[in-house]
Amino acid sequence: MKIILTFGVLLTCLTITLAGCADDKTSALTVTDSNTSNIKTQTVETVAPAKALHPVTVYKSPTCGCCAEWVNHIEDAGFHPAVKHPNNLNTIKQQFNIAPEYQSCHTAVYGEHVFEGHIPVKFIQKFLENPPSGATGLAVPAMPLGSPGMEADHRFTPYIVYQLDMDGEPTVYATVSRMEEQY
Fold this sequence. Notes:
Elements: E1 2-9, E2 12-20, E3 26-33, E4 38-45, H1 49-52, E5 54-59, H2 65-76, E6 79-84, H3 89-95, E7 107-110, E8 113-117, H4 121-129, E9 135-140, E10 159-165, E11 171-176
Parallel strand pairs: 5-6, 8-9
Antiparallel strand pairs: 1-2, 2-3, 3-4, 5-7, 7-8, 9-10, 10-11
């Protein structure tokens, strides 16, 4: 995409050309002074707005601090959560067919997919980039120590990220053995 803007101010005419690069993360800005024919080019960082918007609804208790920390975790990655505090979280979990053994303290919904518990955002992003056939979402049961939102110094408990499937049979999506594997 190439945009050319021309400004005439008295005797000086500047031509600014903005050409997007292939990776959509940088753009080249070229400024030409028509009086002196000096050309300057500078590369600048840009963000494609359509790719940056990730609306998600998070259902949680209004008093849960670890859920609020997890919401911050997904916000830092570009998601825009709408936080809701239903009277009965179990109704939400039942609505999305999350079996009791895979439940946690909060439930996030992105489009047709559900994300239960303290899932690292890198696994949510990977899932959304290429959703497995028959999958409805991901779950991290309970509240593993050291998972996003459950940080406590350098303490960590290994955990499994489960893939929730339409047939009701979860499968292992990822195993997180060390804290560094979450980021």
